[in-house]
Specification:
The protein is mainly α. Helices cover 68% and strands 0% of the residues. Helix 3 packs across helix 9 and helix 5 packs across helix 6. The longest helix has 30 residues. The protein starts with a helix and ends in a 9-residue tail after the last helix.
């Protein structure tokens, strides 16, 4: 439905007030340690983003979103056991403190906005569950519930999340002077097939499949936690 497509645009818009613009997802430390030059090689930036999507975002946040979406049968019906299981598993695979904290902080911000703006019963129900401390409230899991309530099909929901992550990542690269606006858009264009492929690969996965394997990025996130000078929260 066209309304579902419009909801994807709204939720993935950088102007949506969830605070994701404060995240670099390890890119800031990669630049600070010289692993990404200033300006960076466009081919390297594309390769980094592709690996991040395939090995981290899609198999972790993507599957968490899928599970939460599946658990939301209608705007007023929610399988809390499934959503909480996905939420806890997603927290467990985020190895750095920053990754866990920023995921739940942006997730709770999304919950506040969605509860106020969209008013779906399932969203409000899950918001109370998170507020009471019974579930972490990771951004991707919250987004899965919200997307289902807004009638966004599961593949489009995952693809929208992968696009939002990628758009935020290249925007962070511009702010860090790692690249310019034109190159950032070229990188974003180049990784579109990866977004689509990754979304389709995870759309039928379940909670035990939630995983992440990016040791370098995990180390960069842990170093970023201790950095005295930081432009980004992650």
């Amino acid at each position: 439905m066209l309304t579902g497509f419009l909801s994807v645009l709204q939720l993935s818009d950088s102007a949506f007030p969830s605070g994701r613009y404060t995240l670099s997802s390890g890119l800031e430390t990669l630049a600070q340690t010289g692993r990404v030059a200033t300006p960076g090689d466009p081919a390297l930036l594309s390769a980094l983003l592709r690996d991040h999507l395939r090995l981290a975002v899609a198999p972790s946040d993507g599957i968490g979103l899928v599970c939460a979406h599946r658990a939301t049968a209608t705007p007023d019906s929610l399988d809390l056991e499934l959503v909480t299981s996905a939420d806890e598993r997603l927290t467990a695979v985020k190895l750095s403190r920053e990754a866990r904290e920023t995921s739940t902080r942006t997730g709770r911000a999304l919950l506040r906005v969605a509860t106020s703006a969209f008013g779906a019963g399932a969203v409000s129900h899950y918001a109370r569950h998170v507020e009471s401390g019974r579930s972490p409230g990771n951004h991707a899991v919250v987004l899965g519930v919200v997307s289902a309530c807004l009638g966004v099909p599961r593949p489009e929901s995952v693809a929208g999340e992968l696009f939002a992550f990628s758009a935020n990542w290249v925007a962070a690269a511009v702010r860090l002077a790692v690249t310019d606006h034109s190159t950032a858009q070229a990188v974003l264009h180049e990784v579109r097939p990866v977004m689509a492929e990754a979304a389709l690969q995870v759309v039928d996965k379940d909670v035990p499949d939630i995983a992440s394997c990016t040791p370098l990025l995990d180390v960069m996130a842990m170093l970023h936690e201790e950095s005295e000078l930081r432009l980004f929260a992650s």
